[in-house]
Amino acid sequence: MNLYRKLLALVAVAATTSLLLSVTVYGDDDDHEDRHDWFSQSRLDVAPVKNPAYQEECGSCHFAYQPGWLPERSWRKLMGDLENHFGDNAELEAEAQKSILDYLVNSAADNSNYKRSKRITGSLKQDEVPLRISDTVYFKRKHHEIPARYIKDNMEVGSYSNCAACHTRAESGSFGEHEVNIPGVGRWDD
Ligand code: HEC
Ligand code: HEC
Questions:
Q1: C-alpha 180 – ligand 1 centre gap (Å)
Q2: Nearest alpha-carbon partner for 137 in 25, 58, 30
Q3: Could you tell me the end-to-end alpha-carbon distance of the chain, in angstroms, rounded to an integer?
Q4: Each residue's pLDDT tens digit, 48-92
Q5: Whose CA is closest to 90, among 68, 60, 132?
Q6: Which protein residue's CA is at the shortest distance from atom 5 of ligand 1?
Q7: Residue nearest to atom 1 of ligand 1 (CA)
Q8: With bands split at pLDDT 50, 70 and 90, how would you rate the model's confidence at 40?
Q9: Residue 169 near residue 152 (C-beta atoms within 8 A)
Q10: Ligand 1 centroid to residue 184 C-alpha, Å
Q11: Distance 132 CA to ligand 1 centre (A)
């Protein structure tokens, strides 16, 4: 073989290997998730927040939830009544309200290709409009093994809305169970 052919052969082997690997990696079902997906950024669960206005306005009272956790219809409803926001007033100036809503809609779960966004979307009924991520079936299924005393009775957590208290890489969009560290309890090991 001349050098050119050798190179071609090498490329072919490399391509086949990565194809095989990615098949194993992507062919996961919910309970056997393989998170070692080095071939693309889809190892992230949801797209990270990249909107400074959103981060600032909606991240001041709590974790700035990635838009990919809820469908468009949820964000529209939530943004339509910020005055009555879970017992708080989170009203915004009209301009900020509009630009943040645009951002949320564009990056909503049903408009995203990230793994968990697709699963959340798939788990919801058409007419379901959850206002909380923590109210979705998908979320409940993922958290049902956690005792209440780790959450409500835990001063450092308080409620499920406090994603970043337990998920150490929440900010970056990564929520793997191996990255969980519950304050006062420790690493999650099930
Ligand atoms: C003035 C404080 C405040 C601001 C500002 C605020 N929120 Fe909230 N938000 C709350 C409170 C309080 C809760 C309920 C938390 C709990 O139950 O522990 C909440 C809950 C939520 C939840 C549900 C979380 C869950 O449990 O799944 C979402 C989604 C949410 N907020 C989105 C937003 C968005 C989008 C904005 C920006 C437009 C925003 N919030 C701004 C106070 C605020
Ligand atoms: C009290 C701590 C705690 C809080 C708060 C919390 N989680 Fe979790 N989460 C966990 C634990 C523990 C697991 C692993 C559960 C298991 O494997 O049985 C988990 C699992 C998950 C998973 C599945 C991970 C996997 O590898 O399958 C996702 C997705 C997730 N959480 C998202 C969220 C989001 C989004 C929020 C906020 C709205 C949140 N969590 C709030 C503790 C928490």
A1: 22
A2: 30
A3: 53
A4: 999 999 999 999 999 999 999 999 999 999 999 999 999 999 999
A5: 60
A6: 90
A7: 90
A8: very low
A9: no
A10: 24
A11: 9
What does the domain layout of the chain look like in residue ranges?
52-183
20 CA distance to ligand 1 centroid (A)?
43
Distance CA 169, CA 178 (A): 10
| Ligand 1 interacting residues, C-beta cut-off 6 A | 57-58, 60-62, 65, 78, 82, 85-88, 90, 100, 132-134, 159-161
93-121 per-position pLDDT tens digit: 999 999 999 999 999 999 999 999 999 99
Instruction: Give buried/exposed letters for 47-75 (b at 16+ CB in 10 A, else e).
Output: bbbebeebeebbeeeebbbbbbbbbbbbb
Cα angle for residues 49, 44, 60 (degrees, 5° grid): 25
Residue with the smallest CA separation from ligand 2 atom 2 is 166
Which residue, chain included where needed, has tokens 């909380």?
Answer: 132
The 3-state secondary structure of 143-160, one letter per residue: HCCCCHHHCCCCCCCCCC
- Model's pTM, two decimal places? 0.85
Q: Is 45 exposed, middle or buried (0-12, 13-18, 19+ CB in 10 A)?
A: buried
